[in-house]
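Journal club prep — side note

Before the paper discussion, L.F. wants everyone to see what a predicted structure for a comparable chain looks like in token form. Sequence:
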Amino acid sequence: MIRDLFKPFDWSGTVPRRTYWLALFVAFSIAIGCLYLKDIGKAEAWILVTSLAVLQLLFWSVLVRRLHDMGRNGIWSLLFLVPLISAVALLWIGFAKSKPNHAEHWIKKPIHLVGQTLLMAVIAIGLSRAFWAPYWVPSGSMKPTLLIGDYFLVSLINETDTPQRGDLVIFRNPTNNTDFIDRLIGLPGDTVQIRNGHLHINSTAVGLESAGEFEEAMVRQGQWSHFPRCANGPVGHGAACIKSQFLETLPEGSEYHVLNIGNQTTDNTGVFQVPENHYFVMGDNRDNSNDSRTPQVTGGVGFVPRENLIGRVDLILFSSAGSSLLYVWTWRKDRFFKQVR
């Protein structure tokens, strides 16, 4: 009986009534126990959801095989998806008599493949959501590191992780609770200031050297159909849109490229003192980014609380310069599976 219970891969064959009642008892006991869980992290929550989904598959396997024991097709298990009727179905399946002569019909059916496929899908999706999540880039605030239309993978930040300066992070904007992408520049306790477009951390200028120009076409980009901003603008449709490009080096040694369009109000700021459990973030496209340089009272991002950090950008999976993924000719194949720094 116990051996029959733990066969979530196999939806063929039969099980007796006592195995069905045991599976029902285990499922309800665990579900009730979950009601008392509180204050668990995002990763733990997804692991719990995955475990419950696997448990559900285990019970469904017993359910289908119990229906076979009754001489019924496993499709009858869909009754459990109907409110109210599912309660009646629980009792009906639990008390119905076995029909051995009819049950033999299901023993050699290759429907065990259904259980195998569903189980692997549940585990893959659940564990991926516990540790990774996919996102896409809707705006140009992180050019040239991330382009509009990049689809990338994020490793989720949990309570034990320590974000590092230079990390590319997804976070919830404290102003409007939408997801933003920026680079983590200031840690708790740091001072941050911009002087003539040059970043200073703790009163020391970071490394900055010219890296030529960043060029793109003046065309609408992405699903929002945005035009890029240019240092040589205004330019006509399809013409070269150019920005100055620099290599910025943080105190810990991480390097990345930043863009400059021209003199902007955010090129000279006061000194920002990063509060405890908060972070200072900036976009790599410095003159086209709403970030911590703009205070929340004026609609900016301001300082980002630790609990608002969602994940760290690791890998670009796919990239499309068009307004739809179906436009194959707009795919940027050189950005497929590209590591992000």
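L.F.'s comment for the group: Residues 2-131 form one domain. Keep this in mind when we get to the figures.
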